[in-house]
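task queued by scheduler; priority normal; single chain, no ligands, no partner chains; default sampling; output format set to structure tokens
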Amino acid sequence: MANLEEQAAQTLFDKNLIKEEQFTAIKAYRALNIFSVHNELKFLLYLSMLLFTSGVGILIYQNIDTIGHTVLLGLLLLVTLTCFYFCFKNHPGFKKDEAPFPNPLYDYLVLTAVILSCSFVGYLQFQYQTFGTHYGLATLIPTIISLFCAYYFDNKSVLSIGITGMAAYLGLSVDPKHYFENEMFNNTTLSYIGLAFGLTLLLWALYAIKINLKKHFNLVYLTFSLHLIGIACIVNLCDDFWFPFGLVLGIAAYYFYNLSFQIRSISLFIFTVLYGFVGMNIFFVQMLTAIHFDDFFSIFLFTTPFYFIGTILGFIKLIKHFNKKTSDDSIR
């Protein structure tokens, strides 16, 4: 990493983008070997938030018979409202562009408040059936709260909770493991919903860019969209009506591949290549099955080890190409 930073500074100096005094100052600063503990502190704050919300859940579970439901709900509501009070008090207000808190500590307070509000609504529905048999409302209300807080307080973590809540309301799980376990192979309707939801998130991200609304949220939307579209298409590639989904996956992979270079997102790049590779192989096998080219399978089994070695080398080459391309663009 240090060598890359030195090379970047040298490149800027060679291209006369920085002066000799600036180049000397950069080298002197890096010679101090100062490092930041910002990420470590943020991790500790996030961990403390998770421990607190988990502790509240454990407290409710262990003392539910001795304290009483009403008291527990009252305490939970009081803590939640207190968190929201300090968040609203210390935030500058909604803005279409990025509007962070003056103190990043409040970002974790917002996240805590949203998680506690989800727990409150879920507990209320479970114990008192407040929404009757309309169980979707118990998911929809925390989702609306999460999306409102995400945009008002400019919080990406809360936005992820909101998108997950929307997916749950539609009967989906955006975790790939649960996505397959959720009867995706037996219930193609869920895969259609997942594909439609993924395309909707993609369209919303493009529309948000057009109206200049929280453009820094787009990576979150694009990540969810890629997973939903990729998994839904792969599931349907294993079905009888597979050909259109192969085309959709190919178009989506091409789009997200180019987009990952534009926004310099290594995670988007890796998952795009992964979904594209899996989908391409399934599509290829389906094509061979459709034309009844049975003799090819013996050749394919023989060449399988070489094929996978070649794909691993190709993947490494793609990663190097991505790093070189994005590094050159950032310097340029």
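post-processing summary
- The chain is about 80% helix and 0% strand.
- The mean pLDDT is 83.
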